[in-house]
Design goal:
This protein has 323 residues and is α+β, with helices and mostly antiparallel strands. The chain has helices at 21-27, 61-70, 97-103, 131-136, 140-160, 182-211, 244-259, 267-273; strands spanning 2-7, 11-15, 46-51, 76-78, 88-92, 117-128, 163-169, 172-177, 217-231, 238-242, 263-266, 277-286, 294-302, 319-320. Strands 6, 7, 8, 9, 10, 11, 12, 13 and 14 form a 9-stranded mixed beta sheet that branches. The chain has a 5-stranded mixed beta sheet with strand order 2-1-5-3-4, covered by helices on one side.
């Protein structure tokens, strides 16, 4: 029986020779993240061994392969793969409530669906810029962990501004906003988009610390008529929205790539907030599959919260968004 000191809790616990550090932590009700189920296929149970590294078992082949891939120093160990034979002092590296929430994140339905209802709604698409290169260097389970943490934060922001996430598409999401007064709905949706960008900036230090890389997101927002309803077979029916406005919103998000912007809104949204928001580029865009030219606006902030050092009112020539 060995004794270990666990930081940041400052607790001392006993570990048997037969159990891993992960098993010991869980047995003592220390909620250590382990999204692959303790199989050595992710790095979320990583620990920093502060003292007693010589009392830790050698790395298993599975842990060694992961450590080489992620360039772990010798004192970074996986709790699920490590046994101890003597006193050890360690620090848990994934510890906060948000990590624990993301470990068991369940996406719930937004509510009961109403079949076949047409209404005007604000449709927001968000996508991670260049996510494939970001993900290529990560283990599959770590990618899931990063996306769950990202979606968890975006969901909080969207709910705060009275919207809800209707669908996830790989590393992208579709959120919907509506209000009795469309001007209010427009304000909520734009506030949500700006807050999402700010939240990603706050997420970057976490990503850099654990994975030595981070990402940006791009957002497109449109207002239009959609049909909401519950679609699919009875055993897996889910609420969703269909209509041309959804396609337009998706293509507005994609137009950010060529424009070099992060947050674009359609003219239909801009009309509700033209005297309230600060805009950068004004774009005349031929969206794929659409015959008419669409006017888009880059959102920088609200008039009373203008970002410093940002240009306003610039006019960009015609561009054609990619498929």
């Amino acid at each position: 029986m060995a004794r270990i000191e666990v930081l940041p809790e400052g607790r001392e616990i006993e570990v048997t020779a037969e159990e891993t550090l992960l098993q010991a932590l869980l047995r003592h009700d220390i909620l250590q993240a382990h999204i692959c189920g303790g199989k050595g296929r992710c790095s979320t149970c990583r620990l920093l061994i502060l003292e007693g590294l010589d009392h830790c078992s050698p790395r298993t082949p599975r842990e060694q392969r992961l450590a080489e891939r992620l360039h772990f120093s010798p004192d970074i160990r996986l709790a699920c793969q490590t046994h101890v034979s003597g006193p050890v002092r360690l620090r848990r590296l994934i510890i906060d409530d948000e990590d624990l929430e993301c470990t068991d994140l369940t996406v719930l339905a937004a509510g009961a669906a109403i079949v076949g209802t047409e209404k005007g709604i604000f449709i927001l698409f968000a996508d991670i810029q260049d996510f494939t290169p970001f993900a290529e260097a990560l283990l599959p389970y770590d990618i899931v962990h990063v996306l769950n943490r990202y979606f968890n934060r975006m969901g909080r922001v969207i709910r705060h501004y009275h919207g809800y996430i209707n669908a996830y598409m790989g590393d992208g999401l579709l959120a919907l906003f509506e209000a009795t007064d469309p001007s209010q709905g427009a304000a909520w949706a734009v506030q949500a988009g700006l807050a999402m960008l700010a939240e990603v900036e706050r997420l970057k230090p976490y990503l850099q610390e654990l994975f030595h890389r981070s990402f940006q997101i791009r957002i497109g927002l449109h207002y239009g008529k959609v049909v909401t309803g519950a679609f699919g077979p009875p055993e897996s029916r889910r609420e969703t929205v269909i209509g041309d406005a959804v396609n337009v919103a998706s293509r507005i998000e994609a137009a950010n790539k060529l424009a070099g912007t992060k947050f674009l809104i359609s003219e239909a949204v801009y009309e509700f907030l033209s005297d309230k928001i600060q805009v950068g580029q004004r774009l005349e865009v031929n969206l794929p599959g659409k015959s008419q030219v669409h006017t888009l606006y880059e959102v920088l902030g609200f008039v009373d919260q203008r970002p410093t050092g940002m240009p306003t009112g610039a006019v960009c020539g015609d561009i054609r968004a990619e498929e």
